[in-house]
Prior knowledge:
Strand 1 (20-24) and strand 2 (28-32) form a beta hairpin. The protein is of the alpha+beta class. It has helices at 3-13, 39-50, 97-114, and strands at residues 20-24, 28-32, 63-66, 73-76, 82-86, 117-121. The protein is built from 3 helices and 6 strands. 34% of the residues are buried.
Amino acid sequence: MGTEEIVAVWRAVILGDEKSWVMFRNGTCVILMEPEDDLAAQATGILREYGPAVGGTPSGDFGVIDLDDAPGWVVYGHHADVLTYVAPEEVDEDADDVKIGLLGRSRRALDGEELDVVHVEDKRPAA
């Protein structure tokens, strides 16, 4: 999936039209509940801290949400506002939550290393 297709998925599944968010190269989205002046810098700081995954620690834990409003899944971890999208074509047809979650967690970790912002969705009210 391309960037614009993943952006469309995030737009469909993030609840609340007022939420600003930032998406990184590998599909990880950071929702900014208290947006600051520079959304990309704020999200990068959050992902730098909460992106890496270390097995046996809270950063290695994950959960999987089966999406209703788009095909695929969202993988979440130890920060409630750091989410990674996994498309159906990225996993085998019989993939379970563990396989999906491990893929999402690895992509979150990669985004946490690369920190390559590809989209900023600014929903702050106009001043």
